[in-house]
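TASK: fixed-backbone design
INPUT:
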């Protein structure tokens, strides 16, 4: 058999790994990797659009909304990494940070929020510094590092604050966008959308981009094809066979992170057992707890 026919189910760049020993392949299978899919690429294109938007008084904002474990953070993180210090480090002055990503702290207030920004900028601050001081430092440093777009992940944490804190933080968001004239990108669950909608002005400026649960369609089958092609098993698993695809989707309850985790765990088992192909039994097999059951156990 020629090398070209061997491992035809794998991407050409994955094929050489299929001859590695079990331990190396298991490590590879478990390694984080970016898997592209149409909706993610569309969000990335929208983010690119925002980044190149000319400064003006009212900047457009975007809100990435979807259930937990469904790939939201992966997308904004991919975007941030793509724009690390574009154009190289300046000879002097602070490093450029085109895309700044922070997390909305839980139990949020303005002090903690600006603290999170200073943290992300690598700027130490005292927990007891006054809010105004942190706000000044955060804005000054965002200007100095030429932040062009601010991503706020876990935006739904807004709702863990009191009504007064929520109102104040929504004001801060509005103020920050105006002051720096940069687009804001919110990321969170449907609760985040609810928080934004409680402020009429912000609601008008944030365009919601849904990242819904997965259903059994062409895009899902394409995802399975990609997954199969990047996991170095020696035999094809035919994940896109209708019964197999349906079984994975139902075990994952439509959540992207679960689809990927289930296939990865099954692939590890396929290597460990020497079977080299994912069987339907491995999908249903021991150790797989459905997300909803896991939640029930956690409660
Ligand atoms: N594009 C992708 N490529 C590869 N793996 C992915 C991708 N998207 C999601 N995953 C997998 O799914 C997991 C969950 O994704 P992510 O952390 O982005 O979810 P989330 O929507 O931000 O969830 P939460 O709301 O709980 O923060 C990731 O840890 C990763 O294993
Ligand atoms: Mg996340």
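OUTPUT:
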């Amino acid at each position: 058999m020629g090398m070209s026919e061997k491992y035809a189910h794998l991407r050409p760049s994955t094929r050489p790994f299929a001859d590695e020993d079990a331990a190396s392949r298991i490590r590879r299978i478990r390694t984080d990797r970016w898997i592209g899919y149409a909706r993610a690429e569309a969000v990335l294109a929208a983010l690119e659009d925002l980044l190149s938007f000319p400064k003006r008084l009212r900047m457009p904002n975007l809100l990435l909304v979807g259930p937990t474990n469904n790939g939201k953070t992966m997308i904004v993180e991919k975007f941030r990494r793509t724009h690390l210090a574009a154009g190289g480090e300046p000879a002097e002055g602070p490093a450029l940070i085109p895309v700044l990503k922070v997390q909305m702290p839980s139990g949020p207030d303005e002090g903690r929020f600006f603290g999170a920004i200073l943290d992300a900028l690598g700027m130490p601050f005292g927990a007891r510094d006054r809010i105004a001081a942190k706000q000044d430092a955060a804005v000054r440093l965002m200007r100095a590092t030429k932040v062009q777009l601010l991503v706020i992940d876990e935006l739904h944490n807004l709702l863990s604050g009191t009504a007064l804190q929520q109102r104040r933080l929504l004001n801060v968001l509005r103020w920050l966008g105006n002051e720096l004239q940069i687009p804001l990108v919110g990321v969170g669950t449907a609760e985040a959308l609810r928080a934004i909608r409680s402020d009429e002005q912000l609601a008008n400026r944030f365009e919601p981009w849904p990242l819904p649960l997965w259903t059994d369609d062409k895009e899902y089958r394409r995802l399975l094809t990609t997954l199969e092609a990047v996991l170095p098993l020696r035999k094809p698993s035919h994940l896109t066979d209708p019964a197999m695809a349906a079984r994975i989707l139902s075990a994952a309850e439509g959540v992207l992170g679960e689809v990927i985790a289930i296939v990865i765990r099954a692939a590890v088992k396929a290597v460990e057992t020497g079977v080299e192909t994912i069987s339907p039994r491995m999908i249903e097999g021991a150790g797989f707890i459905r997300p909803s059951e896991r939640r029930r156990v956690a409660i």
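COMMENT: The chain is about 50% helix and 10% strand.
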